[in-house]
Specification:
The protein has about 300 residues and is α+β, with helices and mostly antiparallel strands. The chain is about 25% helix and about 30% strand. It folds into two domains: about 140 residues, Nuclear Transport Factor 2, Chain: A (Roll); about 150 residues, Nuclear Transport Factor 2, Chain: A (Roll).
Length: about 300
Amino acid sequence: MTSAAELERNKTIVRSFKECQGTRDETAVMREILSPHYQRLRGGMANLAANARGAGFPETAHGLRAAFPDRVDVIEDIIAEGDRVGMIWRLQGTHRGTLFGIPETGKTIDIWEIGVFRVIDGRIAEGWFMADEVGVLRQLGVNLPARPDGQRVMPAPPVAGEFAEDVLRRLEAEPAGAQQRNKIVVARSKTTAPPAADRAHHTLRHWGMQHMRDYAEARGLEQYDPMSAFPDRRDHITGLLAEGDRVWMLFNLRGTNTKSFYGEPPTGRFVEMAEVGIMKFDGARWTDSWYYADGLAMLLHLGATQLIDAM
């Protein structure tokens, strides 16, 4: 059982990871807080980086500082449970250098990025990041740079997970408590038949692929959402973190695209991409959710990156 003091220490360590970046103390702080065996499991702009790799584009410097020299990260929320810490921030900056093959545009970006960290013995052992890459491209007014080989690099498989029913059985066998109760409700939402009562007071504040949702609503295509486009959809839960009135759920959207996705014809392709849900409770009532997905991975899977130009 991780004590309250240890949880606060872990959050402080992760906060310092972000706050030291771009400062003169960054090297010293990172040496102190990162494990010698630190692993970055996923980069924030993993799809942009993968599609730039081996294409002969100018390198994007560490921390994207060459591309966004005035970069500022504003931490919006941080949560801790056990040895894991989740943090969400706004990445803001002006595009003044090459970004994964995208030449300087002089435009500013303001996007979300999420990090999930594992802290062991006072040091960060793992970091997993996901930034709003579709948002970056839209705000810069560009699409993925064309590679000399004409190819698109498909997303790497996300972290493996479990069906919600298996997670639920394990949660229900553990000691009861308010946070455990909330995790059970959230995990239950990913089962094949979640009780309608769980969402009786629920508001959806942000879609996982909000850019695509906005595109669809503007064209009257919102009925062709991921639940419709992937009829065999069964998501995998990869992690749950609870603190106070909040639960973070990490999961993979998994299914076969056999129906239209927001107006795009079905491809018959199996898709698996990462998504994060941030849920809030008022006592036992699930009041709202905010989802954030790897939208560029979805477009790459479906061969539909041209939609970025239409959004």
